[in-house]
Amino acid sequence: MSVIVVDKSVIIAAPRGLLKTLGLSFLLTDTLLFEIATERKQQGPGVSLAHGAPRQTRVPAILKRAMQEAGNSWVERESAMRWELEEGVSAGDENAPRFGLTEKALAAVMSCSSGLYQQCVEYEAAVGSLASIGHAPDEEESFQWVRRLSEQELFARLRQDFCSPEGRARIAKEAGEGIGQRAKKRGYRVSAGFDPRPSWLAFGMILSKKVFIPWKFWCYGDEPADRRKRANPWFDTEYIAYMAIADGLLSADVNQLKLAWACWPEKEPSIYSLDTQDHTISQFRPEWPK
Questions:
Q1: What is the gyration radius of the CA atoms in the chain, in angstroms?
Q2: Cβ pair 7, 250 in contact under 8 A
Q3: Strand, helix or coil for residue 287
Q4: What does the pLDDT look like over 171-199, one tens digit per residue?
Q5: Where do runs of H (alpha helix) occur along the chain?
Q6: Is 83 in contact with 91 (CB distance < 8 Å)?
Q7: Residues whose CB falls within 8 Å of the CB of residue 55, separated by 6 or more in sequence, listed in order
Q8: Paired residues of 163 in beta bridges
Q9: Angle of helix 254-263 relative to helix 151-163, nearest 10 degrees?
Q10: What number is the average pLDDT over the span 133-160?
Q11: Best CA proximity match to 120, nearest among 244, 45, 6, 229
């Protein structure tokens, strides 16, 4: 059975029972928890998130329904990356660490006074700064070149730069050397078998960071990518990273789907789009502006 990463847009928009009908196995990520946990910071307590229901009652209900219909198999980046480093095995392996979200953990996610919630807010602030990156003075020529590309040209270039055999080899080398060196400095044991390939989360994390910068510059230039919640564009690319240990993605976010299409051409048949109007699901195929 195919394992599919599911993002927040689907958890919010999918009608009851839809996910169970698809014959897919879903992977839920800590990024999903980060996004949901910090909605209160964006919306404010008691503000409706959707369908007129208060956020503090609607979001837990959506999460619980997601766990009932999409399973309760969650992956957390820190433990998954440590598994790869120390075991020398991809975090996509059936024995790699997963966790089930308990009622106690769910309550902690929703409580603004909990330590877990505060960790989520701190992480959001950190990645929000990363997501608002501007170009350096010596990058002016390449920055302007990216800004002039059409949408189709941009995504074709991303595929060319990061999905060719040479591009994949560069990412694998950076993942192996860079992540391995940082892990040793933190005191982690690094297995001789640590060799990140496209099926490893370490590879996916480097890929998502590489693709984020040109995409962000093309979309937003030096401006913040999302003024209401600056971390959102970075979170979008984290779902792309987790595709390394899954077979595909299900999303209602067109920009995210285009990034998935650009980063994982070998998984294109399992990149699915949810139409939020008629609630149908289909294989995603990008349509470029004329």
A1: 19
A2: yes
A3: coil
A4: 999 999 999 999 888 888 999 999 999 99
A5: 8-13, 30-37, 39-43, 55-70, 77-87, 103-110, 115-131, 140-148, 151-163, 165-174, 180-185, 201-220, 232-242, 254-263
A6: yes
A7: 39, 40, 43, 45, 46, 47, 48, 49
A8: none
A9: 40
A10: 93
A11: 229
Determine the pLDDT at residue 224.
75
Joined together, the tokens standing for residue 196 give 């990140």
3-state secondary structure of 25: strand
The tokens describing 109, both together, are 């996610």
257 Cβ contact partners less than 8 Å away, ≥ 6 residues apart: 249, 251, 271, 273, 284, 286
Which token pair is 66?
Answer: 């997601």
Closest alpha carbon to 60 in 108, 113, 7: 108
CA distance 9 to 274: 9
For the chain, the domains span: 3-283
Using CA atoms, how far residue 285 sits from 14, 105, 237, 288, in Å, is: 20, 37, 18, 10
Task: Dig out the tokens for 163 from the structure.
Answer: 């999905």
**Long-range contacts of range 271-279, CB-CB < 8 Å, 24 or more positions apart?**
272/4, 272/248, 274/9, 274/10, 274/13, 274/14, 274/250, 276/9, 276/13, 276/252, 279/13, 279/14, 279/15, 279/18
Percent residues over pLDDT 90 in the chain: 49
| CA–CA–CA angle 106, 259, 174 (5° rounding) | 90
Residues 6+ apart with CB under 8 A from 127: 231, 234, 235
Cα separation, 284 vs 72, whole angstroms: 25
Q: Is the pLDDT of residue 27 over 70?
A: yes
Backbone angles phi, psi at 15, to 5 degrees: -70, 160
User: What pTM, to 2 d.p., does this model score?
Assistant: 0.88
CA-to-CA dists, residue 204 to 22, 89, 101, 174, 198, angstroms:
25, 14, 24, 11, 7
